[in-house]
Amino acid sequence: MADGSYQSPSEYIGHHLSNNEYALGEHDLMILHLDSVVMAILIGLFSIGLIWLVARKATSAVPTKTQAFVELIFSFIDSQVSAIFHGNRHSFVAPAALTVFLWVLMMNAMDFLPIDVMAKFYGFLGLHEWKHVPTSDVNTTFGLALGVWFLMIFFGIKAKGLGGWLHEFFCEPFGTKIWVWPFNFLFNLIEYVSKPLSHSLRLFGNMYAGEVIFLLLGLWAATGVSGIFFSSILGAGWAIFHILIVVLQAYIFMMLTVVYLAMAQEGH
Amino acid sequence: MNLNFTLIAQAIAFAILIWFTIKFVWPPLLNAIEKRQKEIADGLAAAQEGKLSLEVAAEKNAASLKEVKQKSAEIVNQAEKRASEIVESAKKVAKEEGDRIITSAKSEIDQEINRAKEELRSQVSTLAISGAEKILTKEIDKKVHADMLSKLAKDL
To answer: Among the four residues A55, A56, A230, B103, which has the most C-beta atoms within 10 Å?
Structure first.
């Protein structure tokens, strides 16, 4: 906005909040948000790849500082998971939690990059409408939550058997009498629908709102000297506060993933 | 914010990343940490064991030192006893030897005295006879007086 290339504030915000769309087919559902997918994959390769480079040469002798740092993250995740998930956590849940935490954390952290500067950079690369925070796209967060949702069902069936899982669907939480079956079913249906929704929308909402506030501050900066002054101070404050949100939301997303999987395995 | 195919793409990326972490990232880290934990635990146990065996060795040392001291004291006592015995017996031997020397010396002296007496006796009688001869040459029967004087000499 500061360079005056936008006609109106709504155009500025709309431009910064719209994804780079690529149509795979005729239908609206066949649209692919190239920016979200490409950034998510790049960030995933970067974060998990870095850890992998260290893990590949991990030694049980005196660790290097890099390995000590990676082990710090490892131990943090492992202790969090072991407190919630009972069973063999090393075969799936703990590594999944590590993936979720690192990936979401790094995707959230993209929010620290200054939007207008990055927009210029992407424009220079020929990419207009390029959002670099994949978690502020509801498709990303819902994709992750849906993945966890399927895992949840898979873990439930694996732990209790298909019959046991269905039995729980109809006989929990109110009892096994036949006339409460519909209520039980409704209850469980709501739970199964609300879990991925709250899981994904919490992260999406936080990251999206954070971006919007940065955009609003950018708009204010376009109004003159005092706007630049106040929006700089407030922008710095919001960025500092955003560090907390970025880490906290990644942590919450990871913890909910573990909690959902643990609950699915252990029942009500 | 429309839901669209992006969702599926992200879910697939998610699945691949999880698979990669499970396969390549988690196991080496877990192995390294668990191995190190085990090594540290073993090291601590070994240290504890070493401490214990050190204590045992110190106790053994003290016991053997005590035993050795006792033995050496015994040996010294025996030696002292033996030495005093030797001294006693040496004294006894020396005393006997001295006594023997004294006795033999005494008997030698007695012999000397007797011999001297014998000689003296024989000379006295001759002297007395010759003296008496000179004094009484004429009036005394030589033979009768000689008998008398030899009797006298025997009584000396």
So the answer is: A55
Q: Assess if residue A120 is contained within a domain.
A: yes
Q: Which of A5, A194, A198, A232 is catalytic?
A: A198
Select the residue of A40, A58, A146 nearest B29 (Cβ to Cβ): A58
Given a contact cutoff of 8 angstroms between Cβ atoms, the answer to whether A47 and A102 are in contact is: yes
pLDDT tens track for B109-144: 999 999 998 888 888 878 888 887 787 766 666 677
From B9, which residue of chain A is nearest by alpha-carbon distance? A37
Domain of A175 in residue numbering reads as: 21-266
Domains of chain B by residue range? 35-155
Distance of CA B84 to the CA centre of its chain: 13
Tokens matching residue B12: 């697939």
Rounded Cα–Cα distance for residues A21 and A92 (Å) = 34
Give how many domains chain A has, as a whole number. 1
Query: How high is the ipTM of this complex?
Result: 0.87
Q: What residues 162-221 of chain A have any CB closer than 8 A to a CB of chain B?
A: 208
pLDDT in tens, A223-252: 889 989 999 999 999 999 999 999 999 999
